Amino acid sequence: MELKWTESLQGESVRSYKPRPEMFQQALTLSGLQPDEVVHVGDSLKSDILGAQSAGLAAIWLNRLGRPGNEQIVPSYACENLEELRFFLADKEFA
Fold it and tell me: What confidence score (pLDDT) does residue 56 get?
C-alpha cells in the first residue's frame, strides 16, 4: 500500500490548533474529501483523536508508548506501530 499526500497544514497557517476543528476542516477543504472519506492518525488522544472526531473524522490512535487509554476519548482504532496500522488500513474501505 502506498500513501500519498499533496498538502501539509500547520496550525500557524490555519490560525487554529488541534483539537479545534478548523485544522481538520481546512484539510477536508484542501483535499476535496468528506469526513467519512478520511481517517486521521495521531499519537495524542486529546489533540489528534478528540480533534478529528469532533470534525467528524474517523481517528486512529498510534500508541507507540503503550499509554493507558481514556474513558472519555475513544479512538476508532488503536495500534502500537506503523506496521500494525498498515495492515489495518489495507483491510478497510477507507484505505
Answer: 95
pTM confidence score = 0.83
Contact 56, 50 (CB under 8 A): no
Supply the DSSP symbol for 50.
Answer: I
Question: What is the reported pLDDT for 55?
Answer: 93
- Kindly give the parts of the chain with pLDDT less than 50: 95
Please provide residue 8's backbone torsions phi and psi, each rounded to the nearest 5 degrees: -135, 130
Question: Concatenated DSSP letters for 25-75?
Answer: HHHHHHHT--GGG-EEEES-IIIIIIHHHHTT-EEEEE-TT-----SS---
For residue 28, give the amino acid letter. Answer: L
DSSP state of 80: S
The region, left, alpha or beta by phi > 0 then psi within -120 to 50, assigned to residue 32 is left
Grid cell of 82 as nine digits: 506503523
